[in-house]
């Protein structure tokens, strides 16, 4: 695919990922004009698989309060042929797990200092 100029091409990009064995995103948003495609996934394994599949070099993490619940939003983005594609994961974080908010990827365990 050389250009994401049509809706069909954008949906085809997602279909190719699912055909390759990735879980289907639970939410998909495609902006008018095909300049922005957003995929929302259900867990960190799906997020890592999609961002690896798409080759997303840009990562950002945002932590916020949503009516008493602490949430962590992890977003990976890539621009393909003028279309910004993002993969987002929103996780609820308990106050007993605040250490998890301090690391970019909680699946990576740092070795203990000696």
Task: Report what the structure shows.
The chain is of the alpha+beta class and 114 residues long. It is 21% helix and 37% strand. A 5-stranded mixed beta sheet has the order 1-2-5-4-3, covered by helices on one side. Strand 4 (69-80) and strand 5 form a beta hairpin. The protein is elongated, with a radius of gyration of 16 Å. The N and C termini lie far apart (50 Å). The mean pLDDT is 81.
Distance between the termini: 50 Å
Round the mean pLDDT to the nearest integer and report it. Answer: 81
Tell me the major beta sheet. 5 strands, mixed
Widest beta sheet: strand line-up: 1-2-5-4-3
Number of helices: 2
Secondary structure class reads: alpha+beta
Relevant terms:
5 strands, alpha+beta, 37% strand
In short:
The chain is α+β, with helices and mostly antiparallel strands. The protein contains 2 helices and 5 strands, in the order H-E-E-H-E-E-E.
Chart the SSEs and their pairings.
Elements: H1 7-19, E1 27-30, E2 36-41, H2 44-54, E3 58-66, E4 69-80, E5 83-93
Parallel strand pairs: 2-5
Antiparallel strand pairs: 1-2, 3-4, 4-5
């Amino acid at each position: 695919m050389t250009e994401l100029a049509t809706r069909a091409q954008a949906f085809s990009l997602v279909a190719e990922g699912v055909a390759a064995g990735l879980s289907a995103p639970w939410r998909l948003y495609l902006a008018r004009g095909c300049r922005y495609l957003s995929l929302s996934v259900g867990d960190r394994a799906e997020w890592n698989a999609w961002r690896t599949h798409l080759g997303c070099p840009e990562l950002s993490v945002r932590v916020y309060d949503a009516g008493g619940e602490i949430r962590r939003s992890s977003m990976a983005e890539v621009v393909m042929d003028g279309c910004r594609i993002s993969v987002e994961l929103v996780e609820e974080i308990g106050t007993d797990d605040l250490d998890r908010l301090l690391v970019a990827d909680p699946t990576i365990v740092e070795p203990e200092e000696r």
